[in-house]
Amino acid sequence: MSTFRNPFAAAAAALVLSACGPQAQQPSEPAPTETETPSQPTETTGSATPRELDPLFAQAAQEFNVPAELLKAVSYTETRWQMVRGTEEFPGQQPAFGLMALRGADLEQGAALAGVSADAVRTDAAANIRAGAALLSQFATEASVERGDLGAWASVVARLSGISNADAQAEHVHKGVYAVINEGAVALNTDGSVAATLEPVQVEAKFARPQVRAMAAGPNYAASIWRPSPSSNYGARASGSTGDPSMIIIHTCEGAYSSCWSWLTNSASGVSAHYVVNESGSEVSQLVNEANRAFHIGATYDCSLNSSKECWLNGTQSNHFTIGIEHGGFASGTFTAGLIETSAKLSCDIARDNAILKDSYHIVAHGKLQPATRTDPGPNWPWASYLSKINGYCGTPTSSDIIIDSNTANNDATKARFELTGAWTAGSSAGYYGSGYYFANTEAVSAPATFWFYLPTAQTRTVDAWWVEGTNRASAAAFISFNAAGTNLGTATVNQQANGGKWVQLGTYSFTAGWNKVQLSRWTTAGSVVIADAVRVR
Predict the structure, then answer these.
(1) Which of 158, 239, 297, 375 has its Cα between 20 and 30 A from that of 530?
(2) DSSP H or E stretch at residue 537
(3) What are the start and end residues of every segment in region (Disordered) (predicted)?
């Protein structure tokens, strides 16, 4: 059986799958130009998270007379058994919610059939599964499906997918849902206990197979399948240097792979991307030639959102100079190792062919450049390892630099980790490194942010720090460096009201073998905040 491990974000790190109710809102950060200090974080609320999903699937299957195998396979194909909180990725596409990725009218109808509220379907695992099962049951009744024949449910699966393209429907049914039924799957909690299982069942879907024809390779990437978007879904790049591809934008489909490329090749959608990578990384579709402008990001460029890089492009519609890669899955979910590997190979190829710099300023998140309406690819995209893989595939010499980001997902756990003590709050004002940062009140308390880094041997290294500047920041923030034995090597005091959005040198120190650290202290005059964003050791 295939194994899917799903390490959720820190707020739910103990469990693979979350069925919690809506989380309490975290306090907002003061704007960089304001002077008030932040309130303290609040804890999340909601119902307990179930550690076992099998009983929920079994109960819903029995209640609505739907095969449990089918219910599980649909859920796995759509969300990898993750309780997703969908956002809009494409205009006209309703956000998907829960283990069953229910959307729009289907979500409302499923809720009514299951006798629960739409809000419960969006936030509660049991309600979501029941609504999905009720909807499948209703569709089966309308199609006069022989319920004891698992293969006969294929048309119902196709209808629930919402896919209109016949080939994409067939791909979803045969290579998605019924492939999962035939191969089986298991999801584990992070402690190794089983959250959900699907034992393999050999069954043939009674549904038309994808049209048999030679699948041409994409014009720019030989390892892709060419599925061209119609000319109404893309255009010409701007003339001159503003039309030269200089950035790669990372997206999530906010849905499954087949529905994603189907929507982006539908003239009714009016949108496109250059590439789509499937959830396992086993397939890539190319939809638009890299020489053309795909319609994948709805924002003009603002360099203040990208650490003040490439400001000469300010005011240019971002599609003119970017290449977009969509990925099957959700910004609220996690990603398989196969998807990350395949995407990194693709990004390497794009960057090499278009002379795009392979760093975090030129390979960037959709949500970073369009933060008002987009969050993808979300907090669980492993930026540090992703960029490292891209450089590795492109043959770029491995840097000896170690970057410790405040977002753990961006760190190579073998040599970098981040730790908070006491009350800190997540921040996202423009100018941060990686994906966000943390801030806290200054006060006479020993509750630092700690940037750990591992050295295999004793080495002399230079330490730099990155922060987001603002008038309410500490004018004397102290970064203290320690060796692996805990010896204080020196303190660098910096003014975080200035010099933000770039690396600032703190000092050069002789570190020892093992886990050394740099701590950002909060112990200074009260009335301001300190910013823990990133540290670089070089």
Answers:
(1) 375
(2) strand 534-537
(3) 21-50
